Amino acid sequence: MTLGQDRDGVVVRPIGDRTGPERPQGGPTAPSNQPIHLIAALCVHEARIRAIEVAVQQIVRAHFGVLVLTEGFELHAADLYGGNGFFKGVKPDERIGCIHDILDALATHEATVLWAAVDKMKLYSGRHPHRMAFPFLVERLEDWLSQPEPKLGLLVADENKEIEQKLIDDLEIFKLSGTNMGWRSTQISSIVDSIHFVQSTNNRLIQCVDIVAYFSLKYYRQEQKFIKDFREAGTSNIPWPIWREAQPDAAPSRKAIHQIGRKLDALTVGRKVFP
């Protein structure tokens, strides 16, 4: 579709979110094992949408066979990684291989990733962390849509009854008067219409962005832990790049996250962690 004269139509498929349980409103702490709330956008040109849908369907069938015919089958990232739900009993090589193949397909069809995250341990606001992260993601979407040539984007997101209307209202404010968040208030002029919420079960691209968000967060947290461990170890005789490269080999799960994260790095064109 063409969304405007002399401008390419672009469909942006957000928003996958990954987080831990929310802290009570007004409380100064959040669960220490899930301190980060991350939302991600998978940006796909309209001409590539159908090709990605077909590619993902072929990948899923190749890895899981008749399992995909099960009623309600869905690529839940947490289940896919942990071997739970529909993927209980499926060998790790098949599950991790499916993730790599999907990321390769996204790269082949020139999809890009943006994400924004908030550290709930450092927030003293009663506002839902999804709403806190949303303006930072929208700012990066505006940057991406505006350069190098202006494009228009349509937002499609997974259903989230708790905050759907609030996000719709927030986006309308951003389009009228800018994001007004932090030091770089951004006028949102490249996102058309509103946010279209759909059931993830019916949408493979929404399932893809769930994978993107889940592993973007896992990779970010693993990298932050490596930095913390390096500082605490005080191994000044070993340069950081050499020390870091050795860490993923310490455990299969670390290596899996590292390898997936590297592919996500290649797709990611914008990110923000607040504060």
Judged by helices, strands and strand pairing, the structural class is alpha/beta
Annotation field: number of helices: 8
Helix content: 40-55%
Describe the sheet with the most strands. Answer: 6 strands, mixed
SSE arrangement, N to C: EEHHHEHEHEHHHE
CATH class: Alpha Beta
- What is the CATH topology assignment? Nucleotidyltransferase, domain 5
Number of domains: 1
Strand order within the widest beta sheet: 5-4-1-2-3-6
How many DSSP-defined strands? Answer: 6
How would you name the oligomeric state of the polypeptide chains in this document?
single chain
Can you lay out the helices and strands and say which pair or pack?
Elements: E1 8-18, E2 36-45, H1 49-64, H2 77-82, H3 92-108, E3 112-119, H4 129-146, E4 151-158, H5 164-177, E5 191-198, H6 204-233, H7 240-246, H8 252-267, E6 268-274
Helix pairs in contact: 1-3, 3-8, 4-5, 6-8
